[in-house]
Amino acid sequence: MTVRERVQKAGQEQVFKFFDSLSKAEQDKLEADVGSLPIEDLERMFKASQTYEGPDVAGCKAVNADRTGVASKDDGTWFKKGLELVSESKLAVVLLAGGQGTRLGVSYPKGMYNIGLPSGKSLFQIQAERLKRVEALAGKGTIQLYVMTSGPTRAKTEAFFKANNFFGLKACQVRFFNQGTLPCFSFEGKVLLQNKSTVARAPDGNGGIYLGLKNEGIIEDMKAKGITSCHFYCVDNSLVKVADPTFVGFCATLDADCGNKSVVKTIPTESVGVVVQDAQGVHHVVEYSELSTEMAEKRDEDKQLTFRAGNICNHYFTVEFLEKVCSLELPYHVAKKKIPTVNDDGELIKPETPNGIKLEKFIFDVFAFAKKFALLEVDREDEFSPLKNSDKAPRAQNMIQDTLE
């Protein structure tokens, strides 16, 4: 069956609407582009995104770190355990760096952004140097760095690392891999075109990291190197403690296969999800958009928000757990967006209001599969200051240290 026939059977023949007006080269490009889609699965993907129901928030209870899950309670045991993992080269760092710096007002990857330090260092440099600092504290051992990029950021990210001699890391210590993409849909479930010969696509969300780890051989590489544990984090958190020995040691000490850092959410409207536990004892992150006003504003007797374990995309996973979840089908979440596309006349339009949906997978959806889950509460002032907007846009002052204390 040809691509055209498969598309027609799937009810997506609109992608070939302008086919006859294209040159032979453009026709070949479009057929190849459409052929790379999961054509027979498009309808199921769209319907699944429309019918997805998250955890029953009303039936969930708050999960807040108790005295054993607060970073300041470490008597040195967790820190020592974390450094042991490093000294034995059993810890890897996985850096989520697929985002472009659009909201920062730049046309390059976020990790290349100069955040205004006197040193002029980029986020990539600061974080690489923090990784090296942990290696120095351990005295021996190597921390492998796996950098997740996306189609638009891959080449620029690799070139930036190479041009800067990997910021002191060994070239063999750093490996890049891509998250995937998913087609963009109209509200009616029709695949949109970016132009007459190209399908509109978008990165598949930070949850796309799992297929990337599997499809590009990262899991196998970790196993071959004897790595047992990983620290995941987002590049835009300027205060992140890379390969944090306390956090990874805490999770390893509890024999957790999955762990999460949280900060205390103090404002009901803050745009961070919260960690909860459902009636079956399974852990989830409920996005702020899924919390009712009543639940978001609910407070305990001590006046703290009841649902206050704010998720900051800072996670621990064992390689054994990752190998399992990388083969699972995670749910699709819907993001209504303004998607550049072509109108019925083939003219490019840039809508001023949402005209379609992007499908996303969330990295924290694998929490539900963890047999042992660990939650560590850390101080916001020390560990969470994400860069989202440029200096010209309103944002909080970001304080940052050049090295790990």
UniProtKB/TrEMBL annotation:
Annotated EC: 2.7.7.23
Catalytic activity of the protein: N-acetyl-alpha-D-glucosamine 1-phosphate + UTP + H(+) = UDP-N-acetyl-alpha-D-glucosamine + diphosphate
A single GO BP: UDP-N-acetylglucosamine biosynthetic process
Positions of the UniProt region annotated as Disordered: 385-405
Pathway given in the UniProt record: Nucleotide-sugar biosynthesis; UDP-N-acetyl-alpha-D-glucosamine biosynthesis; UDP-N-acetyl-alpha-D-glucosamine from N-acetyl-alpha-D-glucosamine 1-phosphate: step 1/1
Keyword terms: Nucleotidyltransferase, Transferase
GO molecular function term, any single one: UDP-N-acetylglucosamine diphosphorylase activity
Residue ranges, compositional bias (Basic and acidic residues): 385-394
Enzyme class: transferase
Family as reported in the entry's similarity comment: Belongs to the UDPGP type 1 family.
Full protein name: UDP-N-acetylglucosamine diphosphorylase
Lineage of the organism: Eukaryota, Metazoa, Chordata, Tunicata, Appendicularia
